[in-house]
Design goal:
- With 230 residues, this protein is an alpha+beta fold.
- 36% of the residues lie in helices and 14% in strands.
- It has seven helices and six strands; from the N terminus they run H-H-E-H-E-H-H-E-H-H-E-E-E.
- It has a four-stranded antiparallel sheet with strand order 1-2-4-3. Strands 5-6 form a two-stranded antiparallel sheet.
- A hairpin with a 2-residue loop joins strand 5 and strand 6.
């Protein structure tokens, strides 16, 4: 597959999955390496990467994949969810908190801006922008690689993080890794979720499937990037 075709696949969100075709260990390691090897400013580690092939954990994230301000995707029982995260493979880019960035990384950042470490992680801070750029580069490269390998992908940022732990604590044991990750996800804002897997060819990619039937079909949109050649 050429990279133009792969980019067109990665552009479109896949919302249903074929669970009978899991991702091989070799393909999984390839995707992890791609996500981990992408450049960041001064090679600082701006995010943690969560990689889950645990379908129970991915379903917990799916149940929390809603925007409480959207009447179609809200916290009411029976409402739609962003089902792209309910994938055979779920990769989550979790922004590091200011205090957890390595000392070495802090030293490198201070060299470029003495005030960087004192700022908040908001979009208007240099540190916040660096985190967002690092996550964007890594996740974009991962989606392209996945599409090139024959998978479909779906990004999601509409997550109600506080509910992840509330749901997970009734499913996973108290000392489990899954519950620890859910607790941490619930404690932060932001994060980027990417579902990866083979499509369920019984449905359109836009169909949100519930109990084997189409619950709803999500709209799709086109874009035209303004190109300036010099």
């Amino acid at each position: 597959m050429n990279f133009t075709k792969a980019s067109l696949i990665a552009e479109r969100c896949q919302r249903n999955w074929d669970y009978s075709s899991p991702i091989s260990d070799q393909d999984l390691e390839t995707l992890i390496n791609v996500a981990s090897n992408m450049p960041t400013k001064q090679n600082v580690e701006y995010y943690n990467l969560i990689v889950s092939t645990n379908l129970k954990f991915n379903e917990v994230c799916y149940k929390s994949a809603f925007n409480p301000d959207d009447p179609d995707f809200c916290d009411e029982e029976g409402k739609a969810r962003n089902s792209q995260v309910n994938a055979p493979l779920l990769m989550i880019w979790m922004p590091k908190q200011q205090s957890s960035i390595s000392k070495e990384g802090k030293d490198r950042l201070v060299l470029s801006n003495q005030e960087t470490i004192k700022t908040d992680l908001g979009i208007d801070s240099e540190l916040g922008r660096n985190i967002d750029q690092a996550i964007g580069i890594s996740s974009g490269a991962t989606a392209i690689a996945a599409a090139h390998m024959g998978f479909k992908t779906g990004f999601c940022t509409c997550m109600h993080n506080p509910s992840i732990y509330d749901i997970a604590k009734d499913i996973f044991e108290k000392e489990s890794k899954e519950l620890a990750v859910a607790r941490h996800l619930s404690s932060i804002s932001g994060g980027l979720f990417l579902g990866i897997g083979y499509s369920n060819d019984s449905f359109d990619r836009k169909d949100i499937v519930k109990d084997g039937k189409v619950y709803t079909t999500v709209g799709t949109y086109d874009k035209e990037v303004n190109l300036i050649r010099i």
